[in-house]
Amino acid sequence: MTTGDWCKILKTLEEVGQRCCEVLWIRPEQIDLEFIKNAVEVKGLKRIVSVGCGCGLLEWLLQAATGVHVIGIEIDPNYWNSKYFNRTKLKYIPLLFPQDEGFNSALLDKNAVLLFCYFNNRKAFNKYIDKYLGSCVIIIGPGLDSGRHTDPQPFDVDFKKDWTLVDSKEIRDSKDFIAVYVRKI
């Protein structure tokens, strides 16, 4: 999907409340999308590589609302191309898979921010971080006592050993947070 009314989608997400989790884990407002864009631009970076982006609705919203370029990374092309994939869930952005040319270079891109939204696989997360050559990571997920879980969480103590939290923002009053980290030198 390359065109569409992103404002209408944000309004719909606001109206449907928590039911939106079928296609998007978070319910961002325009200010949240601008917050992410600013994190990219302040660091002098050019794009976002979103790991485990699913259908890519958040990433499409980021591109449509702010103009920041986003690349989506997924692991299993068989799921996305199988008869079991729910065809009502669109792929909003093109996805790169491990066998695709450009997959590894996207992860090694020093001019890109790595984004993890509601990621829930610490072992895979650590592998991505170990490969990543860039300087900025954004983690979106639930705060403590939200009743939801991700691994890593936005304010993960273990992750802070090699990275410094430089900014964060709650999304609405949802107990979901955007956490921006830079690599310690």
From TrEMBL:
Gene3D superfamilies: Vaccinia Virus protein VP39. This is Methyltransferase domain-containing protein. The lineage of its organism: Eukaryota, Metazoa, Ecdysozoa, Arthropoda, Hexapoda.
